[in-house]
Amino acid sequence: MDEQQDPKDAANSAKDHVQGAADDFKAAASAKAEEIRRAAEQRAEELRHAAEDKAREFRGAAETAWSDAQSKAKTWQAESETYVRENPTKAIFIALGLGFLLGLMFRK
Question: How many domains would you assign to the chain?
Answer without folding.
Answer: 1
